[in-house]
Model the fold of this input.
Amino acid sequence: MKQISMNIKSVKQLPKNFDFQTVGMITRLSTRTDRNGNMFWDIGIGDQSGDLEGKAWGNSSWYNTQGGDKFMIDPENCGFKLEGMTVGIVGHIGDFRDQLQYNFNEIYILDQNKYPPKNYTKRSPLSQEFLEQTFKNLIAEISNEEIKNFLNAVFFKHNLWEKYSTWPAAVLLHHAYSGGLLEHSVSVAIGAKDLAKHYDDFKNPVNMDILVAGALLHDIGKIEAYNPSPAPSVNVAGNVIEHIFLGYGMFMKFAQLENLSENIKLAIAHIIISHHGRKEFGSPVLPGTPEAFIVSAVDDVDFKMSFWKNQIENLSPQNDVTEFQSLIERRLWRGTSAQ
Ligand SMILES: [Fe+2]
Ligand SMILES: [Fe+2]
Done:
């Protein structure tokens, strides 16, 4: 059975034994060796609809079609970096240990001008204009002038905005696409404000300005921890220092440059450094203020919401429950979205 070129999400809806054709950008590429000592490739490709992990075995054919002609290449010695390039894939869906396995039988390096890799980069599902306007509204609603001026200085005077608004919020797990950091930060800030309003109504007031500043800044360290392209990846600093400490360092530098008052500085720094909520999750101190409780709790929910959505979207239609997700120590269920 032959399928005409389809997007990656549609390929993932196909059952076993189907052939497929798709176009995507190579996001990951590595060589491995099977039990018999034969070399094969593990290849990740992505488009705006999703990601696909496939295998190219020793008998797979690689072609370069740039420049019009089609000629065979050896991917190990082709003279250019394959990660980040747009490719056409002709493949077949097999299975291995009850899991679908995507075999990439023919891989075509496409004309990169005709198929620009940026068209295959995953983006936030929310528009950039909407996220930017919502972000600016959150700052405009801050009543403490010092905090408002500080945030405007960090994002717009010190030029953090360009990276903050385009960076991913993670490598694989949640909001792992361009604009993901902005989407996640805005979502945490709005969710945190809603929860804080509830406690205000119950006579347990929360400092909304510190809360919003902490929510918008809590993950700024990801800017120094990740490389955004061709697909989000953790860089050396991200591996050996991690985004919480990187973010704390960035924030303290901005606080010094802008002469931020000591009490405001401590309150926001506390939110950044405690936001993972547990020492084993990378926070050296645990949340100790209402603002830090709320940001940490909403951050956790926001991560799980995005992770769930991503996993369920990638779940084949025959299944209602995902594989065991070791990171969050559970399987995820479609729940009522199955009906
Ligand atoms: Fe974080
Ligand atoms: Fe976060």
